[in-house]
Amino acid sequence: MSNFEIVAREDFSDVTYLLEVSHPLMAKAARPGQFVIVMSHEHGERIPLTIADFDRSKGTITLVIQAVGKTTKEMQQQCVVGTSLYGVTGPMGIPSHIDKVKKVACVGGGLGVAPIFPHARAFKEAGAYVIGIVGFRTKDLMFWEDKFRACCDEFIVCTDDGSAGIKGNVTVGIKRAIQLHPDLDEVVAIGPPIMMKGCAEATREHKIKTMVSLNPLMVDGTGMCGGCRVKIGNQVKFACVDGPDFDGHQVDFDDLMTRLRRFATQERTAVERWSEHCRMANPLQTLAVRAGQPAVETLPDPFDEVAGG
User: Fold this and answer.
1) Which of these, 72, 134, 48, 84, lies nearest to 300 by C-alpha position?
2) Is residue 303 predicted with pLDDT exceeding 80?
3) Pair 134, 109: CB distance under 8 Å
4) What is the C-alpha to C-alpha distance for residues 27 and 20, in angstroms, rounded to an integer?
5) 158-164, Cβ contacts within 8 angstroms, sequence gap of 24 or more
6) Cα–Cα distance for residue pair 203/269, rounded to 1 Å
7) Confidence class of residue 295 from pLDDT cuts 50, 70 and 90?
8) Listing from the earlier edge strand, what are the strands of the sheet with 35-39?
9) I need a surface site. Which of 19, 179, 202, 276 has the fewest CB within 10 A?
10) Three-state secondary-structure class, residue 236
11) DSSP 3-state of 27
């Protein structure tokens, strides 16, 4: 293993943060849609993270992460500028196919906003008319607006509370794009499964090609464990080697969401054990426990959006 230095960090909210990592070879090889397997330290867990951006000239890749489990919470505390990741393996997965289309909508919801950016940029470089559609719960959680506007011909913002752009989720933005552009060739959507399912349903009746990026539970990332199997039509595929991109109209999203819940108890236990260790160095949390107050916040559903993404 090598050490990969963190050269920049940005916190978008109390649970969402960006790490820019020095890895010239990865930056050179990375393509839209691919992911990496990361170990933050020698004894750390191996976790898959989508490549949110890459800069070949700087030799860096960008990861946007939600602190929802033990490892991502640990990384939120420990990964600062000047520290290093113990291992970064990749790029993994089949790169997204950037079709030669005239008009495409790139849709990102919550944390899916970050990994949809390379798609929008790639489609623009390929000569397509790009409509960017992003969704957040509120204006305060928005990020990368300038980056999207720089590579999108149109940019639609959707917020649940209406504090910016259109009030509603990204399916409202998709319907508006279809209304304004009946010649829309393709939709690419990344986000929580429930969001991608909504996107696929919004385009189904119009017979618009809709590609989604799936995020099932993953262990090795090489197709050996079978943990990331997903149902696509009447076939079983492995997201790590057959994807992560699949035809959204063929994906069994209900099965995917059920599988994402499968280890919720174990995940919660891991967070509680890690938090108990942290309380030894945090007297405020220790006092809260003694007072009978919960010291560990409730984990969000792994397929749902949380504050900040």
Assistant:
1) 72
2) no
3) yes
4) 11
5) 158/133, 158/134, 159/135, 160/135, 160/136, 161/137, 163/138, 163/139, 164/136, 164/138, 164/139
6) 39
7) very low
8) 47-50, 35-39, 87-92
9) 179
10) strand
11) helix
Single-letter amino acid code for the residue at 299: L
Residue 3 φ then ψ, to 5° = -100, 135
> And the tokens for 127?
């000569």
Distances (CA, A) of 198 to 130, 178, 187, 232: 20, 14, 12, 16
Query: Which fold does the domain 4-92 belong to in CATH?
Result: Elongation Factor Tu (Ef-tu); domain 3 (2.40.30)
Question: What confidence score (pLDDT) does residue 150 get?
Answer: 95
For the chain, the structural domain boundaries read 4-92
**What is the DSSP annotation of 129-192?**
EEEEEEEESSGGG---HHHHHHH-SEEEEEETTSSSSEES-HHHHHHHHHHH-TT--EEEEES-
Structure tokens at 160: 């649940």
Question: What pLDDT does residue 224 have?
Answer: 82
The count of C-alpha atoms lying within 13 angstroms of the C-alpha of 226, restricted to the half-sphere facing its C-beta, is 1
Closest CA to 123 of 91, 92, 96, 155: 96
Number of helical H runs and strand E runs in the chain: 10, 17
Spatial CB neighbours of 292, under 8 Å, sequence gap ≥ 6: none
Please, are residues 168 and 146 in contact by the beta-carbon 8 Å criterion?
A: no
Q: What's the mean pLDDT in 132-137? A: 95
Q: In what order do the strands lie in the sheet with 245-247?
A: 166-167, 154-159, 129-136, 103-109, 186-190, 209-213, 245-247
What does 190-229 look like in DSSP terms, one character per residue? ES-HHHHHHHHHHHHTTT-EEEEE-----SSSSSSS-TTE
pLDDT, residue 282, reads 52
Share of the chain above pLDDT 70, in %: 88
Q: Which run of H or E residues covers position 6?
A: strand 4-11
Confidence of residue 285 (pLDDT cuts 50, 70, 90): very low
